[in-house]
């Protein structure tokens, strides 16, 4: 008995052994109750769900931003009032600014496109052949487009590029490389019968994917010289496509551009264009995190009931331990360990399953598709090719620590109640 105080050092071997033994004991021997098992399962599912949900949302946000930033400028510069030569001089000045990776002039107009008896609206982006390499989503730097004849021939030729879903999507035109499409503009030609819309037939040279179905369903690329003729913009550009090394530093870049050009250029950035997207994603991410954390908190509350039931089953054991020298602090720590172990096991298993699902998300999606008609995450419906997921280790660690902290916190109440048990009263009725 004299060895007990040394063996019962705070969270020492004795306390850990007792806590683990109580958890492993069979139910008929007063072990963990069904409620304890339910609390463990609840924590496991909540942790796994939070990791999977936040990883998918991170993947969704990253994929969406990559697609948007790949298919549109980081900073827009309006040069419609300048001649082609003046706009190119401004572009050259901006390209020398630190943090600017490329500057490319372009023209953009909305048109009606027809092919195979189908009609749809589209946006024509006119760019120079040498600027294809500045488009991040063209993994080959535009070599396939150039090989198909893009930018070659008189006035840039008649070869264009189309977004994959505009060309062959469910609501697209049903065309492939080599097929012809007719582009009808809002500009008009005057003739003996009055004004008629300008139109011309073009050959599809290549199709591209930005990663965003929204953009791939809308955009076409046309050689600059050809677009200047079609849209009656001879010797003029509309905008400058300014790309940055860090797309998030648009404010600093616009200030530097204003200084370099003497405030001669009106600029705006992609954030102002996509503010609604960004705000919606942030609000959604925050609310989902709070919701799942509340669910996890409710799951950990079951630990209180489970440990209380265990305390009632172990009243005689507590009384004996108290009479042989285990203090109230020791009893408190034993049952605190019981609740903490339940939470830790649930959190660790939930983290493992969550990480496993996220790192094999493609296989999980394929498995789900086996049991449902069609595709669960149709690209044309959700605007994404496949279910994106990015494992955020910081989120994983925070989730595990939250589950552990909540388990310890809720275990304090029944553990404190166990430590206040009177051994004399407990043994009197045994």
From TrEMBL:
Residues 36-259 form the MacB-like periplasmic core domain. The chain crosses the membrane at residues 31-57, 290-311, 332-358, 400-418. Its main location: membrane. One of its GO terms (biological process) is lipoprotein localization to outer membrane. The keyword Transmembrane applies. It is found in: Cell membrane. It is a multi-pass membrane protein. InterPro entries: ABC3_permease_C, Lipoprotein-release_system, MacB_PCD. It holds the Pfam family FtsX. GO terms for cellular component: plasma membrane protein complex. Keywords: Cell membrane, Membrane, Transmembrane, Transmembrane helix. Residues 291-423 form the ABC3 transporter permease C-terminal domain. Belongs to the ABC-4 integral membrane protein family. LolC/E subfamily. This is Lipoprotein-releasing system transmembrane subunit LolC. It comes from Hyphomonas atlantica.
């Amino acid at each position: 008995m004299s060895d007990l105080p040394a063996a019962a050092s705070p969270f020492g071997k004795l306390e850990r052994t007792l806590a683990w033994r109580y958890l492993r004991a069979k139910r008929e021997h007063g072990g963990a109750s069904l409620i304890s098992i339910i609390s463990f399962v609840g924590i496991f599912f909540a942790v796994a769900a939070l990791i999977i949900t936040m990883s998918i949302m991170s993947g969704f946000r990253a994929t969406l931003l990559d697609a948007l930033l790949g298919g549109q400028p980081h900073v827009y510069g309006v040069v419609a009032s300048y001649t082609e030569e003046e706009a190119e001089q401004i572009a050259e000045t901006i390209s020398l600014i630190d943090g600017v990776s490329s500057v490319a002039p372009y023209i953009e107009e909305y048109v009606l496109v027809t092919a195979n008896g189908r009609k749809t609206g589209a946006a024509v982006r006119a760019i120079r052949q040498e600027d294809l390499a500045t488009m991040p989503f063209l993994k080959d730097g535009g070599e396939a487009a150039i090989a198909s004849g893009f930018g070659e021939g008189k006035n840039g030729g008649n070869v264009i590029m189309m977004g994959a879903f505009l060309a062959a999507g469910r609501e697209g035109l049903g065309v492939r490389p080599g097929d012809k499409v007719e582009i009808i503009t809002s500009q008009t030609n005057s003739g003996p019968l009055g004004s008629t819309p300008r139109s011309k037939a073009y050959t599809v040279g290549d199709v591209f994917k930005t990663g965003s179905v929204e953009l791939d369903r809308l955009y076409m690329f046309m050689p600059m010289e050809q677009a200047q003729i079609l849209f009656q913009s001879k010797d003029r550009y509309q905008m400058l496509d300014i790309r940055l090394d860090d797309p998030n530093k648009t404010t600093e870049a616009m200030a530097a551009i204003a200084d370099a050009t003497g405030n001669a250029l009106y600029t705006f950035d992609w954030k102002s264009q996509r503010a609604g997207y960004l705000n919606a994603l942030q609000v959604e991410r925050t609310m989902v995190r709070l919701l799942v954390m509340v669910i996890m908190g409710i799951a950990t509350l079951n630990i209180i009931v489970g440990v209380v039931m265990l305390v009632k089953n172990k009243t005689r054991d507590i009384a004996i331990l108290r009479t042989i020298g285990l203090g109230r602090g020791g009893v408190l720590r034993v049952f605190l360990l019981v609740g903490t172990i339940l939470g830790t096991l649930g959190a660790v298993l939930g983290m493992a399953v969550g990480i496993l699902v996220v790192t094999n998300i493609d296989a999980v999606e394929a498995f789900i598709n086996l049991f449902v008609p069609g595709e669960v995450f149709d690209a044309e419906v959700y605007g994404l090719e496949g279910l994106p997921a990015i494992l955020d280790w910081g989120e994983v660690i925070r989730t595990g620590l939250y589950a552990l902290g909540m388990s310890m916190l809720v275990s304090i109440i029944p553990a404190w109640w166990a430590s206040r048990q009177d051994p004399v009263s407990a043994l009197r009725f045994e």
